[in-house]
Design goal:
Helix 5 links the parallel strand 4 and strand 5. The strands form 4 sheets. Strands 1-9-8-5-4-2-3-14 form an 8-stranded mixed sheet, with helices on both faces. A 3-stranded antiparallel sheet has the order 7-6-12, with no helix packed on it. Strands 10-11 form a two-stranded antiparallel ribbon. It has about 375 residues and is an alpha/beta fold. Helix 2 runs parallel beside helix 7 and helix 3 packs across helix 6. The longest helix has about 30 residues. The model has no long low-confidence stretch (mean pLDDT about 95). It contains 10 helices and 15 strands. Helix content is about 40%, strand content about 15%. It has one domain: Type I PLP-dependent aspartate aminotransferase-like (Major domain) (Aspartate Aminotransferase, domain 2). The protein binds pyridoxal-5'-phosphate.
Length: about 375
């Protein structure tokens, strides 16, 4: 039986946008132009303006976006890139796809994002970059990470796949570092209706390299001068994303409202730890993740009440077989190791009703 309150439900938001989405598809079909055309250009300009960056380049997905950013920076074979142990696997798969080695750093126990105080334990002579993740929609502590990077001559690349519209102060994530990456996987806060991604860049030389690499290394038509890949955002997805971008702030506000409902309903539940939002940090609640010492039993209990939940993510990445050869911070990642045993993602999406949030909360209270 599928849950009465699913962990996620895209159809609710899509239904509301249906007329605009239909019109956007029709516009592309009527034009008959499907790769690197006016829709991609229009979306790139609109999202660059939204973020406050100079350049945005649409690519095939968020994993490619990271690989392309690393390639454009000249990071590859023999280089190490530090990323958090608690993140989606593609963060580190993309580092390997670029030919470099991931080094897994520990997280902060309260925010779940990369702990700048733990970066020292990850350094080696081969370290070139730090790839922090705005996990669950909360910005990583970029100012502290950038300060560390400056001391050690490293570049910082934001993995903003979960951070569309998140901010530190009044600055959007994706604009905080020289280069940043986004995913438009359908479940992200800004989602396509298929795969999509982007690289945000401040400096024109670097933007030019990203443009060349994402389109077969072409420096001119049929001129292939650098090693590139084929990873392009297509016209239909770019048209879908223009519609979705119009709704992004309203959807993020709706998620924040639902987070407030949960905060109030769950505040006094014993043993339950709620998400935090540090001062000046603007959380966009891609996920609403709580923590409980008996996580698996709590999940089973909620399932009985027809409430869908998920775990993001069940293992620190170094415990995934594919990353057996990666390096781990000296002293390991004790906070990430503990978190993966206790975290649980509650239903969170703009269409979740107040009554549903109350049902989830009372089911948790009855545990
Ligand atoms: C979704 C995601 C990615 C990968 O994006 P795709 O578009 O699925 O390739 C990378 N990093 C993080 C943190 C993600 O959540």
């Amino acid at each position: 039986m599928s849950p009465t309150i699913p962990a996620n439900d895209l159809s609710r938001a899509i239904k509301k946008m249906r007329p605009q989405l239909d019109a956007a598809v029709a516009r592309v079909l009527d034009r008959g132009y499907f790769i690197l055309g006016p829709e991609v250009k229009a979306f790139e300009q609109a999202f660059a303006a939204y973020l406050g960056v100079n350049y945005l380049i649409g690519v095939g997905n968020g994993t490619d976006a990271i690989q392309i950013a690393l390639m454009a920076l000249g990071i590859g074979e023999g280089d190490e890139v530090i990323c958090p142990a608690l993140t989606a696997a593609p963060t580190a798969l993309a580092i390997m796809a670029a030919g470099a080695t991931p080094v897994f750093a520990d997280i902060d126990a309260q925010t779940y994002t990369l702990d700048p105080r733990k970066l020292d334990a990850c350094l080696s002579d081969s370290t070139r970059a730090i790839l922090p993740v705005h996990l669950y929609g909360l910005p990583a502590d970029i100012p502290a990470i950038q300060a560390f990077a400056d001391q050690h001559d490293l570049v910082v690349i934001e993995d903003a796949a979960q951070g569309h519209g998140a901010m530190i102060g009044d600055q959007k994530v994706g604009s905080l570092t020289p280069i940043a990456t986004f995913s438009f996987y359908p479940t992200k806060n800004l989602g396509a209706l298929g795969d999509g991604g982007a690289v945000a860049v401040q400096e024109d030389g670097l933007a030019e390299r990203v443009r060349q690499i994402h389109d077969l290394g072409q420096t001119g038509r049929y001129e292939h001068s650098v090693v590139g890949i084929n990873s392009r955002l297509d016209e239909i997805q770019a048209a879908m994303l223009q519609v979705q971008l119009e709704c992004l702030d309203a959807h993020n506000d709706a998620r924040r409202e639902r987070a407030l409902w949960y905060d109030e309903l769950l505040r006094s539940v014993p043993d339950l730890t709620l998400p935090v939002e540090p001062e000046d940090f603007h959380h966009i609640y891609h996920l609403y993740v709580v923590r409980h010492p008996h996580r698996d039993r709590l999940r089973a209990h909620l399932k009985q009440y027809g409430i869908g939940t998920d775990v993001h993510y069940p293992k620190p990445l170094q415990d995934q077989p594919v990353f057996a050869d990666a390096r781990v911070a000296e002293g390991g990642t004790p906070e990430a190791d503990r978190a993966v045993q206790e975290i649980i993602s509650l239903p969170m999406y703009p269409g979740l009703t107040q009554q549903e949030a109350e049902t989830v909360a009372s089911a948790i209270r009855s545990f």
